[in-house]
């Protein structure tokens, strides 16, 4: 991985200060744990028997941390503010405009069907989507620490990999993610002509357009920009949805392969679980899934198990279905992977597991 700021590329030892892990709770084979360790302290997520727990540094919640260093809590115990829930920015109107842009774009793929079939066969064992992650100065202001931002991004990627790798998008059965490049901006970049996200008032649609226009996007499977801006109407994220008709946008495209995520909702910072699910939701769009249809017993069941990941409104993440794709999403993503992702050369990487931040170029 390459880490870039306005001052250039950080040396490897800077990245080696954080170590990422994933595994299981001892003697509970169906459990899953992912997170990072820095200075001997763990932060991350624990999943066991339909229960989700978060482990965070105590200083985020209390001033006196002399008696304990970490806070662990069950997601079901989180009390959310009494305002409308956050949502994905893809409304019917915005979807129409985005589709028109994709349809008007140039189709970069011109291979014959025989070549498509050959490339599809060659790429089945390549299932890692290499990301370029960008964080702006507003995101930096929330954490004020580059190391902490690296931890946050690594944990987002771990959470997304857990969601995707748990589904069979035949013939793809182990879709996972890794950060190939991360670009961090801070207040020193404000006012620079080379800083794309300058300005305090940028709407979600414009922000996505800016992220989509960054140079060399086509080098990566997907590009995602993170911010802590309070977008209008509770928007938490936005991403291009691939259009199978012309194979433009989303995963593996030469253009419009970007998405955005904010960690702020109605003026308040969202919890890690909501942010992780937002990222996975927008990745779902990038891989071809639309929102689960209202009124579908199969794909929007609600009830005690909750709605699935691609429900239009953000969930608390404490119900079993919240972290899973519906059958509608699996069908859409499978269709896109078979018509788009396997057509493009070198879209997916052949490695199926990374120790995060160890891949330097």
TrEMBL record:
Alphabetical keyword list: Metal-binding, Zinc
Residue positions binding Zn(2+): 281, 285, 291
GO biological process: one example: membrane protein ectodomain proteolysis
Annotated InterPro entries: ADAM_Metalloproteinase, MetalloPept_cat_dom_sf, Peptidase_M12B
PROSITE patterns assigned to the protein according to its UniProt record, in alphabetical order: ADAM_MEPRO (PS50215)
Enzyme active site: 282
One Gene Ontology cellular component annotation held by this UniProt entry: plasma membrane
Gene Ontology terms for molecular function: metal ion binding; metalloendopeptidase activity
Domain called Peptidase M12B: residue spans: 127-339
Official protein name in the record: Disintegrin and metalloproteinase domain-containing protein 10
Source lineage: Eukaryota, Metazoa, Echinodermata, Eleutherozoa, Echinozoa
């Amino acid at each position: 991985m390459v880490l870039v700021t306005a001052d250039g590329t950080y040396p490897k030892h800077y990245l080696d200060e954080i170590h990422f892990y994933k595994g299981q709770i001892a003697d509970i084979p169906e459990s899953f744990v992912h997170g990072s360790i820095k200075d001997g302290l763990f932060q991350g997520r624990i999943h066991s028997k339909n229960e989700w727990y978060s482990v965070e540094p105590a200083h985020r919640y209390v001033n006196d941390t002399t008696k304990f260093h970490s806070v662990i809590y069950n997601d079901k115990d989180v009390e959310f503010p009494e305002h409308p829930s956050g949502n994905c920015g893809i409304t019917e109107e915005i979807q129409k405009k985005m589709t028109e842009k994709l349809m008007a774009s140039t189709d970069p793929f011109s291979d014959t069907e025989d070549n498509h079939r050959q490339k599809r066969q060659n790429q089945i064992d390549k299932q890692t989507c290499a990301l370029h992650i960008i964080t702006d100065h507003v995101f930096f202001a929330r954490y004020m620490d580059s190391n902490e931002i690296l931890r946050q991004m690594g944990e987002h990627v771990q959470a997304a990999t857990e969601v995707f790798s748990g589904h069979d998008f035949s013939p793809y059965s182990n879709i996972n993610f890794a950060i190939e490049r991360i670009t961090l901006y801070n207040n020193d970049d404000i006012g620079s002509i080379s800083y794309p996200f300058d300005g305090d008032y940028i709407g979600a649609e414009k922000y996505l357009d800016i992220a989509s226009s960054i140079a060399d996007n086509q080098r990566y499977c997907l590009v995602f920009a993170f911010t802590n801006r309070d977008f209008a109407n509770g928007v938490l994220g936005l991403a291009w949805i691939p259009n199978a008709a012309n194979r433009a946008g989303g995963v593996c495209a030469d253009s419009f392969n970007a998405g955005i995520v904010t960690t702020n909702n109605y003026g308040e910072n969202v919890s890690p679980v909501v942010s992780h699910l937002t990222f996975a939701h927008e990745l779902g769009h990038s891989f071809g899934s639309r929102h689960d249809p209202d009124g579908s017993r199969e794909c929007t069941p609600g009830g005690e198990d909750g709605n699935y990941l691609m429900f239009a409104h953000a969930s608390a993440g404490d119900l079993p279905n919240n972290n899973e794709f519906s059958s509608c999403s699996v069908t859409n993503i499978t269709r896109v992977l078979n018509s788009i992702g396997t057509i493009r050369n070198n879209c997916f990487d052949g490695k199926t597991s990374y120790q995060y931040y160890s891949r330097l170029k």
